[in-house]
């Protein structure tokens, strides 16, 4: 059998180019009723290429053993047999095996893309068998990595995470060993079927090889996440995002959302500098997707309408991640500065302020060593955005307010997209975060009147929503809102009581102050009771055994209702007696429930101890009041 001539080899290369074009370009135009038409055509061409290579494999083997020699000289530096010019590092036989392996690889990918996973796996494993015939070299290292990436994806899709991990980690080690020992950009798989004049440049080879490894890191990040190795997953995700920027291979909105999501991991670990950097980069890169089309333009074109909606949604999601950043920073600072009763520890505050200079120097040092995103075009923009929000814990009201205002700005942005009509759950979650921002800021406010006004803002934003929500469809959300409203009214009541106690030395409580105090007290009790009522059966019966997720909230609500009834200021003895009896009933419930269900004790140790104490004291107080009422009568 004659060897491939130069013309035959060029025809084979053209066939491969056509197959690639069908798979990657023409397939996008396939009709919905025949979605794989172009890919099936590409498959037939790949099979023809494979058969051609196999048919000449025997002939080439005979040439190399001396039984048959080529009769013509190579043309333009190509091997006459069509296998192309050799590269340092592998034998002609090894390169032939790699070419056959490459066709198996492309057939495998083709079958996977047409949802024929078993056939795809078979072709990919055949590719692996071909590669066993040759050592890793610059001619085939790219194929070594690509096929393992695909097998990793395939097994991950079947929830065989550990199998996927094995293939991907091998791909990673192959890349690292090659770069350590060789370092030069290797031959790309497409060049197996490219004529000499169409070989890739050094720069393009580098880009494609690095992109293949970037995909390895991306898939490993997903694998480690599924295995529960969250820190490792975050490291790989961060590196993937950085490499995508450097290679300029990314979709701006997708990249930005991934970076914003990664920020949430850093935030939960208290790594606010990295979290801020991810969010700043996300905001800048999302901006590269362009301006949001006007509403008028969006109405005229379906494409513009889809683009407008996508841009607004992704930017709103990034804004929500910024809200979480600001909220967590304030809440973590609050935990750091709290004394044993939850108030601001001024001594601790001064101590931390004195240590701040050293902390800022450490931040700068960490900043330089951190894994940063960006290129010359974007780095300045990212750094500029970072300067607008701190990553160190705020230590006083001024610093806390600066963080709060950033968070509030993003609340406004997020609500512009996630409106109550159409995005009920999302809208309410944003409102809850806004409320939590006010609550965290209030911790730093020393003026009790101003602190009270901040809690009033929380009530003003949550109360209308809570009352308007349909209990049938949004029961869990309503419970959250009712409990938060009850606690907010309770907090305001405590603040008003503190203010009244300060004035008690100079003047007695006036009727207005008493009325205000009682209103707050009653409102808190009302929402705690609404929460408890929501746990009842349709017949109005309270459950004998509380579910784990509502155990602590329900017992705390009972405890708070008991406390609130005992604190109401009443001038009428009968009303006071009624409140004390309600208080005693609720304290008794907490004690008796924990006696009947000992496993509940751990959830409410403090509340239980106080309830037991009040169950002993309140009857004495009630009897005294009854005696006084009898005497007066």
Automatic annotation (TrEMBL):
Signal peptide: none annotated. The keyword Nucleotidyltransferase does not apply. Residues 294-368 form a coiled coil. Residues 58-88 are annotated as: Disordered. It comes from the Eukaryota. Keywords: Coiled coil, Cytoplasm, Cytoskeleton. InterPro entries: KBP (IPR022083), TPR-like_helical_dom_sf (IPR011990). It is found in: Cytoplasm, Cytoskeleton. The keyword Coiled coil applies. GO terms for cellular component: cytoskeleton. GO terms for biological process: central nervous system projection neuron axonogenesis; microtubule cytoskeleton organization; neuron projection maintenance. Residues 66-83 have a biased composition (Basic and acidic residues). Activator of KIF1B plus-end-directed microtubule motor activity. Required for organization of axonal microtubules, and axonal outgrowth and maintenance during peripheral and central nervous system development. Belongs to the KIF-binding protein family. This is KIF-binding protein. It comes from Myripristis murdjan (pinecone soldierfish). The lineage of its organism: Eukaryota, Metazoa, Chordata, Craniata, Vertebrata. The gene is KIFBP.
């Amino acid at each position: 059998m004659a060897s491939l001539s130069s013309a035959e080899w060029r025809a084979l290369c053209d066939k491969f180019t056509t197959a690639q074009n069908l798979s990657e370009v023409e397939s996008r135009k396939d009709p919905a009723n025949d979605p794989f038409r172009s890919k099936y055509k590409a498959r037939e061409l790949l099979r023809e290429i494979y058969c051609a290579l196999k048919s000449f494999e025997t002939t080439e083997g005979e040439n190399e053993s001396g039984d048959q020699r080529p009769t013509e000289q190579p043309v333009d530096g190509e091997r006459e047999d069509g296998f192309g010019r050799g590269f340092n590092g592998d034998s002609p036989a090894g390169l032939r095996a790699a070419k056959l392996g490459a066709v198996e690889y492309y057939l495998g990918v083709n079958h996977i893309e047409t949802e024929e996973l078993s056939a795809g796996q078979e072709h990919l494993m055949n590719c692996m068998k071909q590669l066993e015939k040759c050592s890793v070299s610059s001619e085939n290292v790219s194929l070594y990595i690509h096929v393992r990436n695909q097998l990793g994806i395939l097994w991950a899709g079947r929830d065989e995470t550990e199998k996927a991990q094995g293939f991907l980690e091998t791909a990673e080690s192959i890349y690292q060993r090659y770069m350590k020992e060789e370092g030069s950009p290797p031959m790309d798989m497409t060049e197996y079927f490219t004529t000499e004049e169409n070989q890739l440049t050094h720069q393009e080879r580098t880009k494609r090889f690095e992109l293949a490894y970037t995909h390895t890191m991306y898939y490993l990040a997903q694998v480690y996440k599924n295995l529960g190795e969250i820190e490792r997953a975050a490291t790989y995700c961060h590196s993937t995002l950085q490499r995508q920027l450097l290679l300029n291979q990314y979709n701006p909105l997708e990249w930005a959302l991934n970076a914003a999501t990664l920020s949430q991991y850093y935030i939960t670990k208290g790594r606010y500098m990295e979290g801020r950097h991810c969010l700043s980069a996300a905001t800048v890169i999302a901006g590269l997707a362009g301006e949001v089309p006007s509403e008028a333009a969006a109405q005229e074109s379906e494409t513009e309408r889809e683009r407008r909606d996508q841009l607004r949604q992704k930017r709103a999601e990034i804004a929500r991640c910024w809200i979480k950043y600001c909220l967590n920073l304030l809440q973590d600072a609050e935990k750091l500065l709290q004394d044993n009763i939850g108030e601001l520890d001024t001594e601790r505050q001064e101590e931390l302020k004195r240590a701040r200079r050293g902390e800022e120097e450490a931040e700068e040092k960490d900043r330089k060593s951190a894994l940063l995103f960006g290129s010359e075009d974007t780095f300045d923009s990212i750094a500029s955005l970072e300067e607008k929000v701190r990553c160190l814990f705020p230590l006083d009201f001024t610093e806390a307010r600066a963080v709060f205002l950033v968070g509030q700005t993003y609340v406004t942005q997020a609500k512009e997209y996630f409106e109550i009509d159409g995005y009920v759950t999302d809208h309410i979650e944003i409102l809850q975060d806004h409320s939590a921002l006010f609550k965290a800021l209030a911790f730093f406010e020393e003026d009790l009147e101003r602190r009270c006004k901040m809690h009033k803002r929380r009530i003003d934003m949550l109360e209308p929503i809570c009352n308007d929500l349909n209990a049938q469809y949004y029961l869990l959300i309503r419970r959250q809102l009712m409990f938060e409203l009850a606690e907010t009214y309770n907090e305001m009541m405590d603040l008003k009581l503190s203010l009244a106690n300060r004035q008690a030395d100079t003047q007695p409580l006036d009727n207005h102050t008493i009325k205000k105090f009682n209103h707050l007290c009653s409102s808190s009790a009302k929402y705690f009771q609404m929460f408890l009522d929501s746990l009842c059966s349709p017949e109005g019966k309270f459950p004998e055994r509380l579910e784990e997720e509502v155990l602590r909230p329900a017992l705390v609500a009972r405890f708070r209702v008991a406390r609130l009834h005992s604190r109401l200021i009443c001038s009428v003895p009968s009303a006071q007696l009624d409140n004390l009896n309600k208080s005693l009933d609720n304290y008794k419930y907490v004690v008796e429930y924990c006696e009947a269900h000992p496993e509940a004790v751990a959830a409410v140790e403090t509340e239980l101890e106080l309830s037991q104490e009040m169950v002993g004291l309140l009857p004495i107080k009630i009897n005294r009041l009854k005696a006084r009422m009898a005497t007066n009568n």
